[in-house]
Amino acid sequence: MYLKYFFKKARSFLMLKPKTIETIKSTVPVLEVYGEAITKRFYEMLFTNHPELLNIFNHANQKQGRQQGALANAVYAAAKHIDELEKIIPVVKQIGHKHRSLGVKPEHYPIVGEHLLMAIKDVLGDAATDEIIEAWGEAYGVIAEAFIGIEKEMYNEAENQEGGWEGFRPFVIAKKVKESSVITSFYLKPEDGQVISTFLPGQYVSVKVAIPGEENTHIRQYSLSDAPGKDYYRISVKREEGNNKPDGKVSNYLHNNLKEGDKLELSAPAGDFTLNMNTSLPAVFISGGVGLTPMVSMLNTAAAVQPERKVTFIHAAINGEYHALGEGVRKLANEQEHVKAYFCYEKPTEQDRKEGQFDKEGYIDLAWLKEMLKTNEADFYFCGPLPFMKAIRSALLEWNVPQERIHFEFFGPAVDLENEEKVTTR
Q1: What is the pTM of this model?
Q2: Fewer Cβ neighbours under 10 Å: the N or C end of the chain?
Q3: Could you say which of 143, 160, 177 is where a domain stops?
């Protein structure tokens, strides 16, 4: 539905004057060099003039420069493919889902457009001629109109489906379960006791919190870590601390301050990294660390609704102390013949060795994947830290797995796994 609308709006690009398209494409080399400087300046001016938008954006990604890089690449892609929109459809879908989940509205687009043009002019100076600014203004207007239309459809779907809602809905923490030394699950039920909308395995929800002492609210996306069809949503949150990064304000607040009975505000489920259930091809789920959350949702769903489909779950953790949700996965694999599960521990403890709860020590590699799977005839889904994802993608390509059967998800702004070029956000 969204793509049909997108192509309908794409006809508007045909109305762009050839000179406008030529001018936009001429800026591609400049954006490749100055893109992040432009987007950094864009956010500085945007938040200075409209501090209320800090209630929408992820502050941590701003401080680390991740969001600036993601936007820079999106602008670069729009310029590069201004006359062949089909090449940016994946980016359009991902951004649309995120915008709907965060609550980005049509009235935000003129503000963003104004400040983007201001940033281009500010960074490039005299090189940003009136012709370039006018061309970008015209192109941005068309792009914004397309996004607004697509996101309107997404908002309507989220609100009007059974159990759906608009904006953020109050939920109560029905149960809080410590899954590992760093991951805790939150079972969330709607405060009003009414039905909640279903979701596709692999999707996420946005959680909005007002932390005492903080001027702005904070929104974070967390994957739903159980199968749909229940009277609750489950998110399994890693407490982010140390690792040469600022401590995660929201994750630590959830872990340390909220208890059963407390409330959280959630937007309806979103996201396009989902399990394809229209095929009988074997499914292989590969995860590292907290990247297992969407994988467990996919695993539980496939096991329940596709009992004839062969499913393999492979997870990498530091050791048993860091391994979350393992008990449920093991139980499923023991009970159902078509489900296999394997675990790789980087630094197993003596207790791990004694209990024999892992299958490989060290890291997941291609030789081990071949040993476990025997064949590459499968759909592969993976998620985890960036180095992990790069290694898995490289192994699958070396094994000649077709690109169309390789699916992955990023937590936070995404990057190109081949050259680490930032492309979009999650």
Answers
A1: 0.90
A2: N
A3: 160
pLDDT digits (tens, 9 = 90+) for 274-300: 999 999 999 999 999 999 999 999 999
Distance CA 43, CA 49 (A): 10
C-alpha to C-alpha distance for 265 and 167, rounded to whole angstroms: 9
Tell me: do 217 and 325 sit in the same domain.
Answer: no
Mean pLDDT of 340-352: 97
Helix H or strand E encompassing 329: helix 326-335
Burial classification of residue 299, based on how many CB atoms lie within 10 Å of its CB (0-12 exposed, 13-18 middle, 19 or more buried): buried
**Does 381 count as an annotated binding residue?**
no
Number of domains in the chain: 3
Percent composition of the chain: helix, strand, coil (DSSP 3-state, to 5): 50, 20, 35
Q: If residue 252 lies in a helix (H) or strand (E), which one and from where to where?
A: helix 249-257
Establish whether 179 is a catalytic residue. Answer: no
Residue 221 in marked binding region: yes
pLDDT, one tens digit per residue, over 239-267 is: 987 654 556 889 999 999 999 999 999 99
At residue 295's C-alpha, the angle toward residues 294 and 296, to 5°, is 90
Which residues constitute the domain of residue 196? 168-267
Give the active site residue among 2, 43, 76, 109: 109
* Boundary residue ending a domain (267, 294, 323): 267
Residue 67 is predicted with a pLDDT of: 66
Ramachandran area for residue 296 (φ above 0: left; ψ -120 to 50: alpha; else beta): alpha
- Assess whether 337 carries a catalytic annotation: no
With vertex at residue 237, the alpha carbon angle to CA 297 and CA 65, rounded to the nearest 5 degrees, is: 110
